[in-house]
Write a structure and sequence with these properties.
Elements lengths: L7 E2 L7 E4 L8 E2 L4 E2 L9 E3 L8 E4 L2 E6 L8 E2 L4 E2 L26 E6 L5 E2 L3 E6 L5 H9 L3 H4 L7 E4 L13 H14 L4 E8 L7 H7 L7 E6 H4 L2 H19 L4 E5 L4 E6 L10 H14 L3 E4 L9 H6 L4 H20 L10 H5 L5 H9 L7 E5 L9 E5 L5 H11 L3 E6 L12 E5 L2 H6 L6 E2 L10 H16 L5 H5 L16
Parallel strand pairs: 12-13, 12-14, 14-15, 17-18, 17-21, 18-20, 19-20, 21-22, 22-23
Antiparallel strand pairs: 1-2, 2-5, 3-4, 5-8, 6-7, 7-9, 10-11, 10-16
Helix pairs in contact: 1-6, 3-12, 7-14
Length: 509
C-alpha cells in the first residue's frame, strides 16, 4: 500500500523512481525521498530518486520497466526522453507462486438475479441478436434492428433490445486459414452467448462466409431461437427486411417470457479490460479490479485476463502463478508468437503505449504491462485460450487478444464473458452489448470530469479515503448489481451498437 500523506507514491523499496501525485515544479522538495525536483514533473509522471547511469535499469513495482538512455540525476523527470527498452533475459519459473485456493463454500456464495435459460445457461441480459455473415449484409441487419425502437419494444419489457452485430469482414479474405477461422469462431461465440434469447443470421448470398456454412458450424443451444435469411435468395432488401422483422417479432414473444431468479456468483464470467490507461491505473483501478476478481474466483466464478501485447514484460509474473508447467508454457508461446508477428509486420510491441498513455505518465510497454497485470488479482492461472475460444475453466484464465480494447472485448464476449469490467485513467468512453460494461476510473479528477461515463471512482484509493480491498469489495458488489439487471453508465448512454470488432488477420483480397 503506497504512503498517502506524501507528494509522491513509492511502490517498492528497490524502485529508483517514484510517481508524482500532482504537478511538481522545479525546486520542489520531496521530503520523503530527500530529493529536489530538477524539472517540472507532470501529475502521475516519474521522478528519479537516485542516480541512474546510462544503460542501467529503471525500476518500478520492483521490476524492470526500461533502461536509461542517458545519465539521469536524482530529481529529474524520467520519461520517453531518457528511457529506452532494455535488453534483458526474462526467467520463467512456472508455478513457483502457485497457491492453495480458499474457495467460499457453495452454500455461502454470493448470488445475483440472473436469467436461467432452458438448458441451464445463465444470462445477465436478454437480447435478440441479428448477425450478418458479411459487411454486405450488415445494412439489412441494421435496418431490421432499427425497426424495433423503444416504442415497438414497449410490449416486451423483459427484452433489453434488438442488436445488429455488424462488422467489416466476411468476404475478400481466404476461405481457409486464420482470418476466416477467427471470424467464424467469433460469430459462433456470439451466436451461442446466453445473453441472446434469439439469433437471426443474415447472409448476402455470394460472400466467402456463406450463411449455410456458418450456420452448420454453430452449435446453437436448443434453448436459443435461431433463424437464417439470405438476401439474394429472398429477392433483395425489402423482402429480406420484411422477413427479418417478422422473424424477430416471433422471437420477441418468447424472449419476453423470462424472469430473473437467484443464481450463484459461480455463474459470473468477468472480462477484464483496461483502456486509456495512465500511471495510476496500475496503482488504483487495476489493483481494485484484481481484488474484486479474487472475490469472483473465491465464489466459484471466472475472470478473463486478455491483451497479450499489454502483459508483455510482466508475463513472467503470470507464469509463476500457472497451475502447471503446460499452462505456463502456453502463455509464453503466445508471447513468442506476438514477437514474431509484430516483427514480420515491421513493428515492435513497444509501439504500445499510446500517446494518451504517455501523456498520463506511462513510458514503456513494460511499465504499462506491470500495471495491467494487477487486474488479474492473485489467484492461480488455470488455462490459456485462443482468441474468441469458448471458456470452459473456472478461476483466472487468459485469452490471447490484441491490446485494442474493442477487439479484445469482442473476443472475451465470444468466449462467454457476461460482464465486462473496464478500467481507465484518461477516460475511455466504451460500452458493449449484449454484455454490460462497468467503468472504473483510476483518478478522482477524471472521474469528476466524466461522471456520466464512470461507474466507480478508484481514485479514492490515492486520495486516502478507501483501501484497495474496500474498493475491490465495492467493485464486486457492482458486478452483482449489474449482473442482476441494474444498468451501467454505458448502458444508460446507449453504447454497444458499434463496438463489435473481431480481430482481422490476413490479406484483404
Amino acid at each position: 500500500m503506497p504512503k498517502l500523506k506524501t507528494r509522491t507514491i513509492r511502490l517498492h523499496d528497490v524502485d529508483n523512481v517514484v510517481t508524482a501525485k500532482t504537478t511538481l515544479t522545479a525546486g520542489t522538495l520531496i521530503a520523503e525521498e530527500n530529493v529536489v525536483c530538477k524539472d517540472t514533473i507532470p501529475s502521475f509522471h516519474k521522478i528519479a530518486t537516485t542516480p541512474i547511469h546510462k544503460g542501467e535499469y529503471v525500476i518500478k513495482y520492483g521490476q524492470v520497466i526500461g533502461a536509461a538512455s542517458k545519465e539521469i540525476q536524482p530529481g529529474e523527470h524520467v520519461h520517453t526522453h531518457n528511457i529506452e527498452m532494455p535488453t534483458h533475459k526474462k526467467k520463467y519459473s512456472f508455478g513457483s507462486d502457485r497457491k492453495e485456493m480458499d474457495f467460499i463454500p457453495e452454500q455461502d456464495r454470493a448470488v445475483f438475479q440472473g436469467i436461467i435459460r432452458a438448458d441451464g445457461r445463465v444470462a445477465t441480459r436478454n437480447y435478440i441478436g441479428i448477425i450478418p455473415t458479411v459487411n454486405c449484409s450488415a445494412g439489412v441487419a441494421r435496418f431490421i434492428a432499427d425497426a424495433f425502437d423503444k416504442e415497438n419494444l414497449s410490449p416486451f419489457p423483459n427484452v433489453d433490445g434488438v442488436l445488429a452485430v455488424v462488422h467489416g469482414s466476411g468476404c475478400g479474405l481466404a476461405d481457409r486459414g486464420d482470418g476466416i477461422e477467427i471470424l467464424r469462431r467469433t460469430l459462433s461465440g456470439w451466436a451461442q452467448h446466453p445473453n441472446f434469447a434469439g439469433v437471426l443470421l443474415v447472409g448476402l448470398g455470394c460472400e466467402i462466409n456463406q450463411v449455410e456454412t456458418l450456420a452448420d458450424l454453430i452449435p446453437i443451444p436448443k434453448s436459443t431461437l435461431f433463424r437464417t435469411l439470405n438476401i439474394q435468395t429472398l429477392g433483395g432488401t425489402s423482402k429480406t427486411l420484411s422477413a427479418g422483422i417478422e422473424a424477430v417479432r416471433e422471437m420477441l414473444e418468447k424472449a419476453n417470457q423470462v424472469q430473473r431468479r437467484s443464481v450463484s456468483a459461480s455463474h459470473l464470467v468477468i472480462g477484464l479490460e483496461c483502456g486509456g490507461s495512465d500511471a495510476l491505473s496500475g496503482i488504483t483501478a487495476n489493483p481494485a479490479l484484481g481484488a474484486a476478481g479474487d472475490l469472483v474466483v473465491r465464489h466459484g466464478g471466472t475472470i478473463i485476463l486478455s491483451e497479450t501485447t499489454e502483459i508483455y514484460g510482466a508475463e513472467q509474473l503470470l507464469a509463476r502463478r500457472a497451475v502447471n508447467e503446460d499452462v505456463g508454457q502456453k502463455l509464453i508461446d503466445r508471447i513468442h508468437w506476438w514477437e514474431d508477428y509484430t516483427k514480420r509486420h515491421g513493428m515492435e510491441i513497444n509501439n504500445n503505449p499510446s500517446p494518451g498513455n504517455k501523456a498520463g505518465g506511462l513510458t514503456t510497454i513494460l511499465e504499462k504491462s506491470l500495471g495491467a497485470v494487477s487486474k488479474s488479482g492473485s489467484t492461480n492461472l488455470m488455462d490459456v485460450y485462443q482468441y474468441a475460444e469458448g471458456i470452459s475453466t473456472n478461476g483466472l484464465v487468459f485469452m490471447d487478444t490484441p491490446g485494442y480494447d474493442v477487439v479484445s472485448v469482442t473476443g472475451m464476449i465470444a468466449g462467454g464473458a457476461n460482464i465486462i469490467c473496464f478500467t481507465t485513467g484518461r477516460g475511455s468512453v466504451f460500452g458493449s452489448k449484449p454484455v454490460p460494461t462497468i467503468k472504473l476510473a483510476s483518478n478522482s479528477l477524471m472521474y469528476q470530469n466524466m461522471m456520466d461515463d464512470m461507474d466507480i471512482n478508484c481514485g479514492l484509493i490515492m486520495d486516502g479515503k478507501i483501501t484497495v480491498e474496500e474498493a475491490g469489495n465495492n467493485v464486486f458488489q457492482k458486478i452483482l448489481d449489474s449482473a442482476s439487471g441494474r444498468k451501467t453508465k454505458s448502458e444508460i448512454l446507449g453504447f454497444g451498437d458499434v463496438e463489435f470488432v473481431p480481430w482481422q488477420m490476413g490479406a484483404v483480397l
